[in-house]
Amino acid sequence: MELQLSMVDGSVCMKDSAKSEISSERTLYPYVTGTSIIGMKYKDGVILASDTAGSYGSTLRYKSVERIKQVGDHTLIGASGEISDFQEIMRYLDELILYDKMWDDGNSLGPKEVHNYLNRIMYNRRNKFNPLWNSLVLGGVKKGQKYLGTVNMIGTHYEDDHLATGFGNHLARPILRSEWREDLTFEEAVKLIEKCLLVLLYRDRSSINKFQIAKITDEGTTIFPPYALKTFWGFSHFQNPSKGAAGTW
Amino acid sequence: MFRNQYDTDVTTWSPAGRLFQVEYAMEAVKQGSAAVGLRSKTHAVLGAVNKAASDLASHQRKLFRADQHVGVAIAGLTADGRVLSRFLRNECINHSFVYESPLPVSRLVVQLADKAQVCTQRSWKRPFGVGLLVAGLDETGAHLYYNCPSGNYFEYQAFAIGSRSQAAKTFLERRFQEYDTYSREDLIKDALFAIKETLQGEKLTAQLCTVAIVGEGEAFHIIDQQTIQEYIDAMELSTGGPDEEAAAAAPPSAETQEGGEGASSEPAPMDI
């Protein structure tokens, strides 16, 4: 979390001494962050899921952060990483959709176009050493065509049938690789997603037991209200934890 | 139109509320050699007459590709047309770069029209002296637009511009209502027939015209001369019109192959 770009520091320092006392306005590290996003295509469209946590370093500071949002009629975006940068991205995208709607001409930007626009922004910011510190998943359906893509703070972007960010790449994608199918119904897809979310809840310390699922089909978008999953902690290993070392915690 | 004291610059209104410079620019379009356009639900065709300044010269290019899915035919000041084609290509490629997706034709023509409008409201500019027929395909189907020097643009099922375009328009007016369901081949044939109308007596050969098409599964491209000649030959073999039912009410279709100057004896203009 506390990554420092030391070469950036060096060049910034030199610039500062040449200019005045104005401090650097480049993103150096994230502050309030969201953890994984999971996305997958299913029979009728695309599903995105995330938890609603906003961590402040190792503190689980905010517990009701909506990290999945709608963008226009055809797209959903989920963000992990710096929450304030996600809010900035939403401002860009809302403006983009607004101007698109103002044409009022029967054409509209689909998820592919939004993804590429976002990729341009992310890559250009990275080239200026001032990234928007996010990994984003974009899913959508337009005219029956399902789309699922990702883009991150260094401008890497790609599409797939199922995607994840952060820890989700290591914990959720293996499950999806073996159990995902093209023709999952919505209920089956939710079950599969919940399986992944549960693993992330157990194993990712930045996650909380409060999840949001969002789906998008040709008919429209639904972002479901947050809910919790049932967890099980009754493993024998957790019973009497100080058995082998009295006084430990 | 006659000269008057309100026609010197484009930013002077006449008392009757006219901008004469803009109207004179539209006259320039009427002086250019003809261009026609027609479209169905899935395809759009552009055609132009290739008029060379003299037998020694090659003809000017009138059809330009702006992107895989859009092309234009111009009539009027070809130099202005080239500049605008470059603008169209630029707009298309900029959009493709940011959105990885073809620029919708309706948005392209609005940008073109706005550019033309600017030149009607600056004292140090002049209107573009060229009319453009923009043909393209996007997710809402095939489209044909006409862009004026005035900055106006209109969508058409079929249209013709340039000198003697009225003859082509008369022909198109009789047929355009069927065009939505026309096949690609029939569209090309009608485009050729419309071009033939503007020639008024001259024999139509593939060297005298250029035809381009864009449609579903087909990027914008100029059809090669040989294929065009085959279409022309197929047309003239039937009852003088592009299809049999037009025989009843087609006045200029009574031309036979002997009419007009023998085109084959002329020095062949340079290939496109």
Approximate helicity band of chain A:
25-40%
Main-sheet strand order of chain B equals 8-1-2-9-10
Which H/E pattern describes the elements of chain B? HEEEEHHEEEEHHEEH
The overall pLDDT of chain A, averaged over residues, is 91
Average pLDDT of chain B, rounded to a whole number, is 88
Protein chains sharing the most extensive interface: A-B, 13 and 12 residues
Radius of gyration of chain A: 20 Å
Strand residue content of chain A? 25-35%
Shape of chain A: globular
Low-confidence stretches of chain B: 244-265
Concise overview:
Chain A has 249 residues and is α+β, with helices and mostly antiparallel strands. Chain A has helices at 6-18, 83-103, 111-127, 167-171, 173-179, 186-203; strands at residues 32-34, 37-41, 45-51, 54-56, 59-62, 68-71, 75-82, 134-142, 145-152, 157-159, 162-164, 211-217, 221-223.
How is the secondary structure organized here?
The complex is a heterodimer of chains A (249) and B (272).
Chain A lengths: L5 H13 L13 E3 L2 E5 L3 E7 L2 E3 L2 E4 L5 E4 L3 E8 H21 L7 H17 L6 E9 L2 E8 L4 E3 L2 E3 L2 H5 L1 H7 L6 H18 L7 E7 L3 E3 L26
Antiparallel strand pairs in A: 1-4, 1-7, 2-3, 2-11, 3-12, 4-5, 6-7, 7-8, 8-9, 9-10, 12-13
Chain B lengths: L19 H12 L3 E5 L3 E7 L13 E5 L2 E7 L1 H22 L5 H14 L11 E9 L2 E7 L5 E3 L2 E4 L3 H11 L8 H16 L9 E7 L2 E5 L2 H13 L35
Antiparallel strand pairs in B: 1-2, 1-8, 2-9, 3-4, 4-5, 5-6, 6-7, 9-10
Helix pairs in contact in B: 4-5
